[in-house]
Amino acid sequence: MDKKVVIYTTSTCPHCAHLKEFLKEKDIPFENYDVSQNREKLLEMREKSHGLAVPVIDIDGKVMVGFNPQLVSKELGIK
Question: What is the tally of structural domains in the chain?
């Protein structure tokens, strides 16, 4: 898989935990930033998503807010 996956999460977000679990199960490498602990990444996430909702998923520049397994799978080209 050649796509770069960056996710912005918080430690208290259940959808964030599901997203990380999903990516690990599918063996998709990803960079995770906890925006509750990293102000610089919070600002970066806000610029990409124009909001404060998490998780935010950036797959090669395509930004999605929230965790929808079907959309993430489609964007990653996996089943």
Answer: 1
Which pair of structure tokens corresponds to residue 69? Answer: 């397994």
Q: Residue 22 sits in which domain range?
A: 5-76
CATH number at residue 51: 3.40.30.10
Close Cβ partners of 56 (under 8 Å, ≥ 6 residues apart): 7, 8, 45, 48, 49, 63, 64, 65
Please give the DSSP secondary-structure letter assigned to residue 5. Answer: E
59 CB-near residues (< 8 Å, 6+ apart): 3, 4, 5, 72, 75, 76
pTM: 0.94
pLDDT tens, residue by residue, 24-68: 999 999 999 999 999 999 999 999 999 999 999 999 999 999 999
Distinct helix (H) and strand (E) counts, the chain: 3, 4
